[in-house]
Automatic annotation (TrEMBL), chain A:
<dbReference type="Pfam" id="PF00116">
    <property type="entry name" value="COX2"/>
</dbReference>
<keyword id="KW-0249">Electron transport</keyword>
<dbReference type="InterPro" id="IPR001505">
    <property type="entry name" value="Copper_CuA"/>
</dbReference>
<protein>
    <recommendedName>
        <fullName>Cytochrome c oxidase subunit 2</fullName>
    </recommendedName>
</protein>
<dbReference type="GO" id="GO:0042773">
    <property type="term" value="P:ATP synthesis coupled electron transport"/>
</dbReference>
<dbReference type="InterPro" id="IPR008972">
    <property type="entry name" value="Cupredoxin"/>
</dbReference>
<keyword id="KW-0679">Respiratory chain</keyword>
<keyword id="KW-0999">Mitochondrion inner membrane</keyword>
<dbReference type="InterPro" id="IPR036257">
    <property type="entry name" value="Cyt_c_oxidase_su2_TM_sf"/>
</dbReference>
Automatic annotation (TrEMBL), chain B:
<feature type="transmembrane region" description="Helical">
    <location>
        <begin position="53"/>
        <end position="71"/>
    </location>
</feature>
<dbReference type="GO" id="GO:0033617">
    <property type="term" value="P:mitochondrial respiratory chain complex IV assembly"/>
</dbReference>
<keyword id="KW-0999">Mitochondrion inner membrane</keyword>
<keyword id="KW-1133">Transmembrane helix</keyword>
<keyword id="KW-0812">Transmembrane</keyword>
<feature type="transmembrane region" description="Helical">
    <location>
        <begin position="30"/>
        <end position="47"/>
    </location>
</feature>
<comment type="similarity">
    <text>Belongs to the COX20 family.</text>
</comment>
<dbReference type="GO" id="GO:0005743">
    <property type="term" value="C:mitochondrial inner membrane"/>
</dbReference>
<protein>
    <recommendedName>
        <fullName>Cytochrome c oxidase assembly protein COX20, mitochondrial</fullName>
    </recommendedName>
</protein>
Length: 228, 117
């Protein structure tokens, strides 16, 4: 989860997010060098005392500043498109969960199992309880098995919402009357936090999401308890 | 190309909350870039005594060397990472199938070598 003054991406919890972080680093390096070049050009122009009153064009210069950015964009586009199509691949999900956004909570349905549905409300913050995260904790966690490919179908019951887990690199809009599909694989155990990412009314900031990633055995035990 | 698994212990360098020393190829790219910019600019100045152009040469070589090393290193690193991932998957499968009928190495199996086809 995000802590104070964290301006970066969260540590990845899925292979896709890991690839997104690598792409971010790659693109950030290119952007940083472009910024350095532009600042250098600006500084050179400011301190330059030479003037050419009759300069109207510079064919070579214009050719360079057309071709070089195109080449730079190619170096950005190639990994970007690769990642875009990688994110859309589906590798035989072992289960499907449905997420429905409401004002102002999320409800989850594990339709592959019998009678496994629950709502997830934000846990109100207790000022003296230092062990909970303000505005991020929920009463029921979405428990999922790790190292398993999972499909999630997101929709909403009333207004637009958005189901987001930054550490998985997922953001899926919850639109009433529409089913949006996403998929992911969690590669480590733990708690993954997210928040609603589409303005949906007064308590838009107070409908978080918590995924609890557990081993397959623990997940089966949890499902058994819930199904009873 | 120098490997990213250096023996030198990398100090953590935090920029906007991110430890950039953990980014593969970052440290070496900037090291080589800054060195080449400094050397290139200084060499040009030593031969021509033209400070303005020497600065341009230094900066240009910094940008070109940094970007070239970065692209080359990241490409090699991503190929290596893919190979490592394949190797890990194979090792996992091998550990899972060891001793079963799917074990291709036939480890622990008692075999009649003389009568084998």
């Amino acid at each position: 989860m995000t802590t104070w003054s964290c301006m970066n991406l969260q540590d990845s919890a899925s292979p896709i997010m890991e690839q997104l972080i690598f792409f971010h680093d790659h693109t950030m390096m290119i952007i940083t060098m472009i910024l350095a070049m532009v600042l250098y050009f600006m500084a050179s122009t400011i301190i330059n005392e030479l003037v050419d009153r009759y300069m109207l064009e510079g064919q070579t210069m214009e050719l360079m500043w057309t071709i070089v950015p195109a080449v730079i964009l190619l170096f950005i586009t190639t990994p970007s498109l690769r990642l875009l199509y990688l994110m859309d691949e589906i590798h035989n999900p072992i289960m499907t969960i449905k997420t429905i956004g409401h004002q102002w909570y999320w409800s989850y349905e594990y339709s592959d199992f019998v009678n496994v549905e629950f709502d997830s409300y934000m846990t109100p913050y207790e000022g003296d309880n230092k062990s909970m995260f303000r505005l991020l904790e929920t009463d029921n966690h979405v428990t999922l098995p790790m190292h398993s490919f999972i499909r999630i179908i997101v929709t909403a019951a009333d207004v637009l919402h958005s189901w987001t887990i930054p550490s998985l690199g997922i953001k899926a809009d919850a639109t009433p009357g529409r089913l949006n599909q996403s998929s992911f694989m969690i590669n480590r155990p733990g708690l993954l936090y997210g928040q609603c990412s589409e303005i949906c009314g007064a308590n838009h900031s107070f409908m978080p999401i918590v995924i609890e990633s557990v081993s397959t055995e623990n997940f089966i035990e949890w499902i058994k308890k819930l199904s009873e | 190309m120098s490997k990213e698994t250096d023996d030198v212990e990398k100090k953590s360098v935090i920029i906007f909350g991110r430890d950039v020393s953990t980014i593969p190829c970052f440290r070496n790219s900037f090291l080589y870039g800054i060195e080449s910019g400094f050397v290139g600019g200084l060499t040009y100045f030593l031969f021509t005594s033209n400070t303005r152009v020497a600065t341009h040469v230094g900066f240009t070589s910094f940008v070109i060397v940094t970007m070239s090393y970065w692209f080359h290193c990241r490409w090699q690193w991503s190929k290596e990472k893919f190979t490592h991932g394949q190797l890990q998957a194979v090792m996992k499968k091998h550990a899972m199938y060891e001793g079963t009928d799917y074990d291709l190495t036939h480890k622990g199996e008692v075999r009649d070598v003389k009568n084998e086809p």
